[in-house]
Every structure is written in structure tokens, then in C-alpha cells.
Design brief:
2 domains; mainly alpha
């Protein structure tokens, strides 16, 4: 099967992978949704017990392999991970550009997105920063109630 061509280099790189011992490598490449649904529990069990699972998943995402089960994830699930990683990278870039003093409109133009999306990133970042500050304040308050030394506790 043509799809196995992506699998063979992986098996050679990660010879300790659980799948490297299987004879039928095509098993990881089900044809259609029905076959995928039928095989998925067994494939996830194989991948779940594998010491190379994270590397396998990273390989499939990096190589943008659009088929097969890699690291226990379906192509749809891997696409979701890719989109989430791209979103995080874009958010970091937006914050970095803002910290450099670049305006919202310039950031939107530079990245090729709408200004409302840039504002949304700022809003989410501010909310996260507020939650972190509140958590730190609660920790500091709790620590202030502790005795300064073991002697004062006795």
C-alpha cells in the first residue's frame, strides 16, 4: 500500500515502537471511517502502551501525514493539534509585536488577520494575566499566615 511508505521510515527511526514488531503495518491505515472506527480501540491500545507514542505523533504532525493512526490519533485529531499549535504561535507573535509598540491595525495587516482577532488575543491574554495574578495573590496570602521559622511554630 502506498500509505505505508510514510510508515517505513518511522519504523526505522523508532525501532522500539510497539508497531515496529507488527507484520501488517497497513493495519494502521484503515480505509474509510467505518474501518477506522472498528480498528481504533485496538490501535489506541497499541499506541497507548508504546514508549515512542509522543515521537510518533510529532512525526506525523511535522510530516503533515493526512492518513493513518499515529500516536493513537486520527488524521482529524492531528489536524486539530496542528491548528491549536498554529494558533498559539500566532498569539505569541501578536503579543510580541504589541510589546514592541506596533499598533493593532499594523499587527493585523502584517499577519493578515482582522483587527478584531488581534483584540481577541489581547483580551484573552489580559484575562489569563489577571487569573495568574489572583492565583499568586492567594498563594502569597496563604504563605503570609505561615510561621516564619520552625522555632516560632513550636
Amino acid at each position: 500500500m502506498i500509505r505505508t511508505k510514510h510508515f517505513l521510515p518511522f519504523v526505522q527511526l523508532f525501532e522500539n515502537a510497539a508497531c515496529a514488531e507488527l507484520e501488517d503495518l497497513d493495519y494502521f491505515f484503515p480505509e474509510g471511517n467505518a474501518e477506522e472506527a472498528k480498528r481504533l480501540p485496538k490501535l489506541r491500545a497499541i499506541c497507548g502502551a508504546c514508549i515512542e507514542r509522543k515521537e510518533c505523533l510529532a512525526y506525523a504532525i511535522k510530516e503533515e501525514i493526512p492518513f493513518g493512526i499515529w500516536g493513537g490519533k486520527t488524521p482529524t485529531e492531528r489536524g486539530h493539534n496542528l491548528k491549536r499549535n498554529e494558533k498559539l504561535e500566532r498569539q505569541k507573535l501578536i503579543i510580541k509585536l504589541r510589546n514592541q509598540g506596533i499598533s493593532t491595525e499594523e499587527i493585523a495587516t502584517k499577519i493578515g488577520i482582522r483587527t478584531t482577532q488581534v483584540y481577541r488575543v489581547f483580551t484573552e491574554a489580559n484575562k489569563a494575566r489577571k487569573r495568574e495574578n489572583q492565583s499568586n495573590q492567594q498563594t502569597n496570602t496563604a504563605c503570609a499566615d505561615l510561621p516564619l521559622s520552625l522555632e516560632s511554630a513550636q
